[in-house]
Amino acid sequence: MGYDIERFVGYVNEGLLCSICRDVLEDPLQAPCEHAFCTACIHGWLVHHSNCPEDRQIIDMSLLRPLYRYMRNDLNRLQLHCKNREYGCQMVCSLESIDRHERECEYSQIPCSNAGCTVQVERRNLDGHLAVCEYRSRECPNGCGYTILSVEDTQHNCVAELRTELELLRSEMICRVEEAKHEMESRLDSQRRHMVQKESILQNEIEELKSQMSRMMSDVRSLMAAERQHRQELEQAELEKREL
């Protein structure tokens, strides 16, 4: 939709009106046949039609182009009233700058910034409203440290609130202790399994060393027996030599 023509000061050229909504062009696009439309208007039209609403020539979205520069300049120079005129704003400015003005206009209706409050006030009155808004928050005057809403003043009980917070902290602490306990038990189990595994490996190595030691002792005994036999054979040979 375009800008309401009633907001404009002075004469508005027919060529600057949307061919669909008949208001002053907003975010304009132009067809090859040179008829101009608001972007929202022509997009909505082409959902159900495939021709220009003025002369019925075939058009589609790809044929739409920005407005000629001279027409865009004429459009931007038009003077119009702020949309907040009904609330008291007397500002008249060019179409080119109207959006910037209305974003900052002191007469704009804006929502209260307090959560839960549905009131809308003029920008210039916002601070006054926030000072008395029943949804404004403040720190408890009794020193408990809680932030309370004005609507909760009569229901706020420092002792009850602190007791509730203490219970929550106690529950949270118990949960954390349990989590730490489970984590430590898990680590101990893991270390225990690792130690048992290492012990089993060491035990196997010890058994292997014992087996090797036993084989070595057997070999030593065999060598010693062979040495005794060899010595006896030498002694026998020596005796035989002497007899000869």
UniProtKB/TrEMBL annotation:
Residues 101-144 form the TRAF-type domain. Residues 192-243 form a coiled coil. It comes from Probosciger aterrimus (Palm cockatoo). It holds the Pfam family zf-TRAF. Gene3D superfamilies: Zinc/RING finger domain, C3HC4 (zinc finger). InterPro entries: Znf_RING, Znf_RING/FYVE/PHD, Znf_RING_CS, Znf_TRAF. This is RNF41 ligase. Transmembrane segments: none annotated. It comes from the Eukaryota. Residues 18-56 form the RING-type domain. One of its GO terms (molecular function) is ligase activity. Keywords: Coiled coil, Ligase, Metal-binding, Zinc, Zinc-finger. The gene is Rnf41_0. A zinc finger (TRAF-type) spans 101-144. The lineage of its organism: Eukaryota, Metazoa, Chordata, Craniata, Vertebrata. SMART domains: RING. One of its GO terms (biological process) is regulation of canonical NF-kappaB signal transduction.
